[in-house]
Amino acid sequence: MRKKISLLLTFVMLFALLAVNLFADDEPSKWAVQSINDLKARGFLHQDLTYDYKEDITRKDFCKLAVYAYLKNKGYQDVTDLINAELKHDFKNYTYQFQDLDKNNQDDQYIFVANMLGFVDGVSANKFAPQQYLTREQAAKILLAVYSTMGQQEKLDYYKQLFADDHEISAWAKGYVYDIKEIGIMTGVGANKFSPKANYTREQAIITILKTINACQAHQKLTEDNQSKVKKLKREMINLINQERAKVGVAPVEECLEFEEYADIRASESAQVLGHTRPDGSRFYSGITGKFSLISENLSAGYTLPKTAMYHFMNSEKHKNNILNPAFKEVSIGYYSQKDSQYETYWIQLFSTK
Q: Which of the four, 102, 227, 252, 256, has the lowest number of CB atoms within 10 Å?
């Protein structure tokens, strides 16, 4: 009896130890727990990716991870929902060139969508290799594509510091690796190394997808805040114009939204060529597509606030004449800011009469 009990206890202990080891392998690293829980809480992590966190991630699973987070961020329920809402025509006419995928398999549909959105390419013209493990430099390329699609980030032209193993990064991957590093989504593995050819793990992939979403949302918030700020500055400039016109008994000008985008273009062009001639040598109004019977342009550079720019305008005879001219019925305000340019801030007052 005692031998039976002893054997039973030994069996139970061995089973418990085995179970602990199995579940331990299934748990994420401590440094990854918070990010994984965050992505789960938002509902952005596909259930198929909620285990084997320390395992290397396949190309197929990385596509599922990226596309699922992308579609959830846009408010869709699943890949079918996204296809029906935005990609139905594209999906119908899509060329299914990857012979190792099945277009009727929902898991493979994540790959097709990722390819359609420009996130990922095949390993050849007709092969995707879904079960092939993803390397860190390959992950950098996909992450930057996801970020660009969601955040509209321009490619960087310079990098603050190269990795110590820069010589190991493939030539095609260097731009992606350093862009994604500068954005802050994917960094090195320590000792200023990137380890480009090493496989990417599932938990690393999850963390960087979360960083991608956060960076895109921050970019969107910054864009919206900047647009709101510029809109207020433009409104203030129009108010200042009409205050000056009121002082001499001239009717106010109305805001002309039709020419506003062009006024912004002229403001940005002023950072390249300061004057009433465009960078291509044509007159300032050459790019306007709408009709007008009378038009004139005021340009100011180096003044951040509408009040200081307006002071400059009113102390210039030609600019002042445009502001107070009763023949003008509308005005479009252009604004552009570029810190590394000569004057940083550029204002355009585009006066017109239809």
A: 227
Q: What would the pLDDT profile of 228-278 be if each residue is shown by its tens digit?
A: 888 999 999 999 999 999 999 999 999 999 999 999 999 999 988 888 988
pLDDT tens digits, residue range 81-111? 888 888 876 766 677 788 999 878 888 889 9
pLDDT at position 21 is 42
Average pLDDT for residues 142-157, to the nearest whole number? 74
pLDDT of residue 20: 40
What's the pLDDT band for 157 if we cut at 50, 70, 90? low
Which among 348, 340, 149, 100 has a CA at the least distance from the CA of 237?
Answer: 348
Under a CB-based contact definition with an 8 Å cutoff, are residues 268 and 336 in contact?
A: yes
Please check the confidence at residue 350 and state whether its pLDDT lies above 90: yes
Query: How far, in Å, CA of 244 to CA of 314, rounded?
Result: 9
The whole-angstrom separation of Cα 295 and Cα 264 is 16
Strand ranges of the sheet holding 345-353, from the earlier edge strand across to the other edge: 254-255, 330-337, 345-353, 294-301
Sign of CA dihedral 334, 336, 342, 344: positive
Which residues 6+ apart lie within 8 Å of 49 measured at CB? 61, 64, 65, 202, 206
Q: Which SS3 state, helix, strand or coil, does residue 258 take? A: coil
| Residue ranges with strand state E in the chain | 254-255, 294-301, 330-337, 345-353
**Gap between the Cα atoms of 269 and 345, Å rounded:** 12
Q: pLDDT > 90: what percent of the chain?
A: 53
Task: Answer yes or no: are the C-beta atoms of 105 and 131 closer than 8 Å.
Answer: no
Q: Tell me which residue of 265, 331, 335, 330 sits closest to 301, measured CA to CA.
A: 335
From the list 204, 185, 193, 203, the residue with the least C-alpha distance to 167 is 193
The residue among 125, 128, 116 whose CA lies nearest residue 79 is 116
Residue 8 corresponds to which amino acid? L
Query: Is pTM beyond 0.90 here?
Result: no
Q: Are 69 and 45 in contact (CB under 8 A)?
A: yes
Residues 163 and 161: their CA atoms lie apart, in Å, by 7
Helix (H, G, I), strand (E, B) or coil at 297: strand
